[in-house]
Recover the amino acids of this structure.
């Protein structure tokens, strides 16, 4: 049966997913609800769709509506704050969810609550591989990892708005030379760069956790791409994966690969086939 989908967040990811559902690029599903706190973002998505969904700009109205009752799968493509506020309420209502703001799992209380809930109820929480690859290897070797480091390189525009700059009284526009901004663990990296290092959260969940996953964030004014390099040493070998991503047109913080990964994850949920590399 075709799945009924609700999307939270009509930005770079939500916009393209909505169109991909509408155009049947993602088959066997329909987009029934879009929810965003920004009316302009809703309008931008809504106007382009042939099959018009119900729209909401208030979470309480969204989750308490009879339309929500019929939803099979919610897609979160908004922000870590949104995921933190909404996800538990959504899964308590028995809905499957695909989460893009994976950094939310660096909050241990949230992580524990989700895991405890999933042990009791058969709800699916899908976490797409996003802007990186190699998650399959990390999951396979997790009990043998000696060290794991993510090195993320982005330009000033892609990093702009991160709490790191306010916390350290740095004007990101004035940085003119490539330099390491942050060198620490994934938990702290997500606090400082919540919209930039969601990939470190996925690596942490797949591997050795947020405290043992090292993250370096580098600003490079001459680099147009968003680059993620993962270096892993483990008992029976080592590997490096470097993914050089073009930013999405709509949001320079978000790599276009993340949108494709969300599309593919949704497609595999709605139109199951061989589970390749999972
Ligand atoms: N997993 C990954 O690899 C990966 C990669 C890229 C982006 N992301 C994350 O996915 C999320 C979406 O990315 P994007 O590029 O589409 O962002 P975006 O900024 O382009 O769009 C986010 C949208 O969500 C809306 N929004 C924000 N807070 C909200 C709330 N509390 N309730 C409802 N709507 C809210 C905004 O108004 C905006 O329209 C972000 O958290 C981003 O960090 C994850």
């Amino acid at each position: 049966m075709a799945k009924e989908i609700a999307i939270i967040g009509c930005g770079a990811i939500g916009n393209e997913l909505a169109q991909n559902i509408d155009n049947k690029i993602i088959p066997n599903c329909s987009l029934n609800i879009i929810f965003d706190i920004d009316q302009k973002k809703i309008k931008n998505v809504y106007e382009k769709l042939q099959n018009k969904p119900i729209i909401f700009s208030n979470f309480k109205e969204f989750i308490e509506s009879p339309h929500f009752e019929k939803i099979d799968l919610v897609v979160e493509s908004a922000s870590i704050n949104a995921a933190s506020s909404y996800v538990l309420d959504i899964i308590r209502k028995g809905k499957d969810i695909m989460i893009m703001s994976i950094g939310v799992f660096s909050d241990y209380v949230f992580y524990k609550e989700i895991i405890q809930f999933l042990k009791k109820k058969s709800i699916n929480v899908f976490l797409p591989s996003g802007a990186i690859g190699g998650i399959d290897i990390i999951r396979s070797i997790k009990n043998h990892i000696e060290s794991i480091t993510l090195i993320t390189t982005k330009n000033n525009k892609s990093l702009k708005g991160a709490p790191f700059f306010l916390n350290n009284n740095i004007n990101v526009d004035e940085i003119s030379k490539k330099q390491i901004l942050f060198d620490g663990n994934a938990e702290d990296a997500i606090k400082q760069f919540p919209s930039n290092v969601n990939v470190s959260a996925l690596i942490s969940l797949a591997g050795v956790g947020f405290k043992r996953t090292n993250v370096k964030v580098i600003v490079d004014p001459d680099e147009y791409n968003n680059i993620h390099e993962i270096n892993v040493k483990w008992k029976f070998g080592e590997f490096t994966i470097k993914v050089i991503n073009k930013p999405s047109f709509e949001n320079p913080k978000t790599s276009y690969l993340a949108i494709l990964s969300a599309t593919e994850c949704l497609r595999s949920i709605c139109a199951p086939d061989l589970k390749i590399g999972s």
Observations:
- The CA atoms of residues 59 and 153 lie 35 Å apart.
- The chain has a mean pLDDT of 96.
- The two ends are 23 Å apart (CA to CA).
